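Colleagues,

For the teaching module next term, I've prepared a clean inverse folding example: a structure given as tokens, and then the sequence designed for it. I'd like students to try predicting residues themselves before seeing the answer, so please don't circulate the second half yet.
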């Protein structure tokens, strides 16, 4: 169960970093004045992906601590 939680968090983090890369690339391409709405949307999405990545890292750290605590109990 704990490994499944860790795997889910890791997959979520990977999806978030891929989303951040896509948003960052879109921001880099939006250099023309007419592309401002796209740039704004991409910046919002970049921030959303950042928050999701941080949440997944916290979940991964919690799973790691929980696994460590369980190993301590078993030992």
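(Answer key — instructors only)
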């Amino acid at each position: 169960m704990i490994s499944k939680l860790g795997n889910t968090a890791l997959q979520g983090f990977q999806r978030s970093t891929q989303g951040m890369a896509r948003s960052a690339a879109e921001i880099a391409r939006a250099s023309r004045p007419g592309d401002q709405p796209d740039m704004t949307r991409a910046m919002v999405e970049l921030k959303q992906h950042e928050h999701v990545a941080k949440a997944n890292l916290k979940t991964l750290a919690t799973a790691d601590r929980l696994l460590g605590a369980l190993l301590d109990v078993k030992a």
